[in-house]
Amino acid sequence: MRAPLSGCRVWLTRPAHQAEGWAAALEAAGATVLREPLLTIEPPADIEAARAGLIAAEAADRILATSTNAVDAAWRLKPDFAPQGTLYGVGAASADALEAASGRPVARPSGAFTSERLLALESLASLHGQRAAVLSGEGGRTALADTLAARGAAVTRVALYRRRGADIGPARLARLLDRADAVVVTSGEALAHLLTLAGDDHRAALARLRLVAPSRRVVQQADQGQGWTRAPVVVDRMSGEAVVTALARVWRGDRQ
Hints:
By secondary structure, the protein is α/β, with parallel strands linked by helices. It has helices spanning about 15-30, 45-60, 70-75, 90-100, 115-120, 145-150, 170-180, 190-200, 205, 215-225, 240-255; strands spanning about 10, 30-35, 40, 60-65, 85-90, 130-135, 155-160, 160-165, 180-185, 210-215, 235. The protein has two domains: about 10-40 and about 165-255, Rossmann fold, CATH 3.40.50; about 40-165, Rossmann fold (3-Layer(aba) Sandwich).
């Protein structure tokens, strides 16, 4: 029986320290994986401020981790980090990582695990007089913190890491685009860097790839002026297995 992704060449752009499990899942499904991260994850610019933010977060009523990178960085910067409030992760992978690191249960929505469904939880509906800590990277979206503040919470954003766009030269980029059938991006920041790298010179080559994205929001970002030949696909959770499932649904048609 032919593997579901036999013949599929996948550019995996996930940061190097997080890519191997995903690459193994793709290769087990028959894909050829091109490992080339679009972002590197680095310590925050102000490490002492990050540690002070984590101390404050330990006393917060609600603690929300926006990514697995935020979870990893929290315990790396403060190994004895012990948040006492209700824990939340934005997305299933973040929730899983937070639960494993803290040893405590993490509140989760039922059904599809999106930020919108997370914010629909009853425990986040009214936050007057409550303190909320959002564990995240530097910059990025403020929608989550803004929503919590609008619901009455005193919100502290704790910047625990920063993302830096990888330096991929034009010749290397051209080879990647020529060799790949699909490209997996795992954040809006990664996609923005990819589009910047491609520019006008490589736009057509990028457009022919099947984009695998982590959310509909990122797909909407991808659609702005790019003109993809094939419709981007969205994974239902951040995992290598979910990428395999999403790609397998479309790969048979793509290779015909």
